[in-house]
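Example record used in the benchmark description.
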Amino acid sequence: MLFDTQTDLVIGQKVNQFFDPQSKDTYQEYIQKTVSYLTEFLHNENFYSGESPNDLRSMTDLITADPHIKLSIDDTLKEIKALYLDHTIAFHHPTYVAHLNCPVLLPSIIGDLIASSVNTAIETWDQSTSGTLIEQEMIRWICSEMGLPAISDGIFTSGGTQSNFMALLIARDHYAYKHFGINLKENGWSDVVSKFRFFCSEKAHFSIKKNAALLGMGYNAVIPIVTDQEIKMQPDALVQAIEKEKKLGNIPIAVIATAGTTDFGSFDPLETIAKIADEYDIWFHVDGAYGGSYILTETHQDKLKGIEQADSVTIDFHKTMFQSVCSSAFLVRDTQYFKYVSYYADYLNPLEYRDEECPNLIEKSIQTTRRFDALKLWFTLKMTGAKAIGSFLEKVHYLALDLYHSIKDDPCFEIVHKPELSTLVFRYKMANIEDDTIQNTVNLYIKNTLFKSGQASVASTKLNGNIYLKFTLLNPKSTLDDLLNIIGMIKETGSDYKNNN
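Model output (structure tokens):
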């Protein structure tokens, strides 16, 4: 006998923990009890408890998953409350303005719950059926919103970094095949690839350089282009950089424009860059992870002109469409470009059985197993609607502008830019202090002190070697008074530092 009596008894006790017809009552009980803890989390006073890293690490009894101790749902929920829910970061809180973490729409949560419970693996038709159709529809919808042609296509990804990775990979392999007849997917590295060069703004996302390195091309394959006073890529500088690399014997293959830089929310001049890419016959990728969703607004249509000419686009729904992580997509102008990442496995999606009526999405993805992340966006479009999402985005944009106008004449602050999206970069300035080293120190002190106290979470970044604070506004329910409250905290903390030093 393969299993002894004691093992059978343990399995019998735990078998009702599976999601199946026999456990439906237990499932409802677990979900209902969990919801009560989650709604309690919404009432946490601060965005963070202020516990120190050492205090959190000291909760070893809670952190350890002892295989010999089996807890009930009630005891386990009590432990996760004490360990996690009481101390995790609350992105919905009005004093959280640090990073690109949005509050989540309820329809997205419902879609995520269904996707997690059913556990659809979206990579092949025989695992997902109509789930495949829903993802394809979400891709068709966003491609249409972007103005991409009917032959465009896309795939859901884990986020902007993965999407940008696919953009660089496909741009490289397409250029190698089109201009040199080299099939990198089949035959691997070729010496000519070491001369390939990508071009992007000096303020482009770090994933461009990171992904060039992961592709074996190195950081130096990415040529940064200087930005203007509005922190946008300068087209003239782009042309000069392309010509310079050509004279050096290198080969320009792609330009990456950013629609909403992470730090400043700046839009590179997409239309002009598209024309330059066309003139040089190189790939045109738009990293719209942050600003791409503003295609749904009336306020940013002009800034996104030219995105319809892109060969590929990155867009993160979990940044600016209020979706739970992960929900992102990589789009291509022509579905044929996915041939550079496709692979046909005998056990999964054999080429000889390829059927357009029953598509296998794995042919377009660098992942194999993928969650059904498109479902939460589908729920959101059904229940909330694209027009409402656009209005939410306009609200946070105008909120950033209101804050800008509220503090731009305040002598306590030096503001870098007028917001184009929903970020504002500035620094606190101590009066009568010219030394930037001291100003940098006080701004870091402000950021760290507010975070450690649980009062507010503000991000920081660098510009011209100096440290600045950053508000990233993604909560349409925030008010100007909420933001001015944080500004007041910054002033008070800066004043305390000066008095104590």
